[in-house]
Fold this sequence. Notes:
Strand content: 15-25%
Order of helices and strands: HEHHEHEHEHEHEHEHEEHHHE
Number of helices: 12
CATH topology of the largest domain: D-Maltodextrin-Binding Protein, domain 2
CATH class of the largest domain: Alpha Beta
CATH superfamily of the largest domain: Periplasmic binding protein-like II
Helix content: 25-40%
Number of domains: 2
Largest sheet: 8 strands, mixed
CATH architecture of the largest domain: 3-Layer(aba) Sandwich
Distance between the termini: 46 Å
Radius of gyration: 23 Å
Amino acid sequence: MRRAVPVVVALAGLLLLAACGGAPASGPGSGPPAGPSAEKSLILATTTSTQDSGLLDVLLPEFTRASGWQVKTLAVGSGQALELGRRGEADVLLVHSPAAEEKFLAEGTAGDRLLVMHNDFVLVGPEADPAGIRGLGSVEAMRRIAAAQAVFVSRGDDSGTNAREKDLWAKAGVTPGGPWYQSTGQGMGATLRVAGEKQGYTLSDRATYLAQRDTLPSTILSEGDPGLLNVYHVIEMTQRAGDRVQSQGAAAFAEWIVSPPAQELIGRFGKERFGQPLFTPDAGKDEATVGG
């Protein structure tokens, strides 16, 4: 059972005291015996992009210093993160699948959903670009890839990236399938590596691609399309999802990640290494203006 109090350890300590002829202090002014204190620990279910880009390595230690809450991270696709929240197996979510998030909120087990940041998706592929998509808009690029039956590697994992990929195929009027369309069922970093090995195309968030660019043969071929905006929200879970949910920890994390210190960290992340930030902080903005 998650976060169980170590009763066996406490009992062993009492037996040791008895064996040594000692006993817990009692009497006026001594106060109650001190018991084991539960660690302030919460579970964050988030997307592989925040993990693979290195952003969490920057944010989480600062959150712990500021709040005292330790964080265990489950880096999965957004769909899986939402499912963990639905089952009460995560306390707070950091995800990027807006349509799925809105359906999830309507179920009534979550608390606040707050805008955190955005970046964008990019279509990457081999420098030789056999489908000829360089410089095209995302929808036309998908049509060209399908027409050429060039290898396309999908995450296929119900992530926010996978959801956006499906949306692009639908807009292109394409039902992908056959030997040229391959699925990894894995996160963004792994999918980028497979696409590179197969000299194929894939859809990636910009942050993960840039973080791994030096190890990949792939290059960005289509970018800047308004349809490729990638928006992240934090969602607090409540005990309506299950009595194990650490709602106080969830609220603390959500409040911190939209605070000025955290937003400043987000805005600086990537500048030194890549010459550009990998995410744009958005807390407090009107959602309709994001990316504008």
